[in-house]
Fold:
Amino acid sequence: MRTQVVIIGGGPSGLLLGQLLHTQGIEAVVLERKTRDYVLGRIRAGILERGLIGLMHKAGVGERLAREGFVHDGTIISYGDEDFTINFKDHTNTSVVVYGQTEVTRDLYDAREAAGLPTVFNTQEVQIHGADTDSAHVTYQVNGETHRIDCDFIAGCDGFHGVSRQTIPLGLRKEYEKVYPFGWLGILSETPPVNDELIYAASERGFALCSMRNQNLSRYYIQCALTDTVEDWSDEAFWEELKRRIPKSHADKLVTGPSIEKSIAPLRSFVTEPMRWGRLFLCGDAAHIVPPTGAKGLNTAASDIHYLFEGLKAHYLESDSAALDAYSEKALARVWKAERFSWWMTKLLHRFPDQTEFDLKMQKAEIDFLRSNREAQSVLAQNYIGLPY
Ligand code: FAS
Ligand code: PHB
Structure:
């Protein structure tokens, strides 16, 4: 078999790229290790920046997002029992939209299937060959049978644990990593959100986040120890701890209920450079990871896809490969700014086990400055709604 682009990974990155390429008549095959239902069962991001929203519409899959997404003009930041609002709209004339990654991925799968585009599920042993030659191809197994796809380009959209980044020789890539000494315990509950916009809460007991998916589906997180397991946290223990970390005025309004999903995510900052090797292009979590504090994971995957799509479109439609050649440098310039903001938000709002009394005073002073300074709030707002592509 031969195609123009092999996309490894059927998560949001791979599916969005496949849909955008389809709008330009560029062929792509998606190889996904799991099943569609397994991919949709992963509960992850919830906030969409304007850039991703624009790409969903460009890909022809923005209709449900426009209908069901919740527009948020700002967020609450709290410290102990005090809180203040940062109004994104006031500072940037731009909002964000709450629409779960699961729904983004569902819309993309639905569109791909409706267009009859090829997706191979349950692929095993995916291997990339000749990425640095003119005979690039990918092999994989399904039900023990080996298949080969010859292609012009390979998009490595296979996440942090995928095969794509590992295919680039160690001597040709440099990795940057910071592992945080805590994780996020997240639950999904069929309860009304505690507030109509998000609450990012810093407290002496640790970080908490109050988010949502719709008017009757809430998403909450609390910072937890890396040694914690989901089994250590009953629903009751979770709710009690969450109430201790958010201002009493909000805790008193919290509607609790049984969790329908509960998971712990480790937090890390990670970037690999470059994001290209010959005909192989890395996108999304295959190339970079952020702590979810800044809601940048999915949204930075989207800007990678924007740059790669524009590069492939120019290559195929205008025989111009300049944008493709600039992909890695252009994508990384925005990736590092997202890494910085996510690291800064994480440092601002979490309790670190090695913090000294002085460190705690610095953290409190930074939050007090953010509360009282319009320009500081504008900087947060510009980063949160998404820096320009
Ligand atoms: P993904 O990891 O989503 O998708 C990669 C796909 O490739 C997967 O479907 C996988 O099955 C497949 N794959 C892997 N190896 C393969 C192989 N060898 N062959 C074929 N297929 C293969 N971001 C936020 O903004 N907010 C959040 O709250 C948030 N929470 C998160 C919680 C967790 C536990 C994790 C892991 C991430 C979270 N993220 C969050 C980040 C997340 O949303 C990612 O940024 C987003 O999924 C990136 O999408 P992809 O690049 O498509 O990678
Ligand atoms: C979520 O709703 O899952 C969410 C929102 C904002 C974040 C992280 C996660 O920063």
